[in-house]
Amino acid sequence: MSQYLSEPLPRHRTVAVDVGGVTVGGDAPVVVQSMTNTDTADVDSTVAQVAALHRAGSEIVRITVDRDESAAAVPKIRERLERLGLSVPLVGDFHYIGHKLLADHPACAEALAKYRINPGNVGFREKRDRQFTDIVEMAIRHDKPVRIGVNWGSLDQELLTRLMDENHAKGAPLTAREVTREAIVQSALLSANLAEDVGLPRSRIILSAKVSQVQDLIAVYTELARRSDHALHLGLTEAGMGSKGIVASSAAMGILLQQGIGDTIRVSLTPEPGGDRTREVLVAQELLQTMGFRQFLPVVAACPGCGRTTSTVFQELARAIEDDLRERMPVWREKYPGVEELKVAVMGCIVNGPGESKHADIGISLPGTGESPAAPVFIEGRKAATLRGPDIAAEFRDMLAEYIERRFGSGAERKVG
């Protein structure tokens, strides 16, 4: 008989890391993070985008620190965010000259909550370990954690060549792809060991191993989790645009999360021209919420539509309610504790409408094609009203607002669990 996994596997036990007040790893919930695509030296645009990402739900935001001008801008960005009342941790993404930028700009080193180092391009040949060590020592001096982020596209070529030669000497028992995966894992672990040898404690180290193919990501992180207890940052690099990027990231990270692997995630979507950068944050939240790991927003259940629902009223109402809830959540989280657990149903006909509405906290079953122009509303499983006429949508939204105030408002009776 087949055995079905009804619950996620227990979380892979990792060492907790404090990133500017946000805990990654240990028993903490999986953290959502993102990255800006502005020129960090442009303080105004970077502050605006960090604020938008954080308000959308990004709990950590990474920014590029690639030259003197961007390093000099970091403390200004931090100060501006604090004036806006935003305490989001900022992570500095360093490549090639990170050791020099951190040394030349101590205010930048202090303003950042974490440093990200790519061991494949922190330096080359005899300079690599020395420059990597310089950054680690800077992290120790400023009491900052470090993410050691290996990337398939910038892998340490000396390590890869050595492993390929060793594999060939053994009669090539592994494919080139398998050797490359092993090189990624070894690069992360060897770099982490070096950081610890320098004096950075394991509680200040996060590992990531970014690749662009789903099966490679699953294989690499499964092996990393087997061989270490470091906190792990999940992400499919160069995931792509639109539905392709969403599906690829969700497939890869969904499998790993179900296996208990992953402490923080980023969905790396290529934005459409002029597109909204916050979309990657919403996708990450939806992935975690859909899988039952975290609850960010009230759930709005809506039927997909069929020949019985030629009217678009239910689609428009479902979209309006989702947009309204998402827009109001930053305020509602404070005003209505627990509102993110709300379940709303917006159904389009009599087939499943009443049943789904009864299962929700509050739901409406709109009339389908040929049905009586009446929309029963159910609250906590009981029929509360029947709406008719041209203002059904507005009336239901008013009922929803009243229900939220009654159930989650300051005067509501709190259940003791």
TrEMBL record:
Q: A single GO molecular function, which one?
A: 4-hydroxy-3-methylbut-2-enyl-diphosphate synthase activity (flavodoxin)
Supply the EC number(s): 1.17.7.3
Q: Which domain of life is it from?
A: Bacteria
Quote the cofactor binding remark. Answer: Binds 1 [4Fe-4S] cluster.
Q: Where does [4Fe-4S] cluster bind?
A: 303, 306, 349, 356
Q: In which pathway does it act?
A: Isoprenoid biosynthesis; isopentenyl diphosphate biosynthesis via DXP pathway; isopentenyl diphosphate from 1-deoxy-D-xylulose 5-phosphate: step 5/6
Q: Which stretches make up the IspG C-terminal domain?
A: 300-400
SUPFAM superfamilies tied to this protein: Nitrite and sulphite reductase 4Fe-4S domain-like
Q: Which family does it belong to?
A: Belongs to the IspG family.
Tell me the protein's name. Answer: 4-hydroxy-3-methylbut-2-en-1-yl diphosphate synthase (flavodoxin)
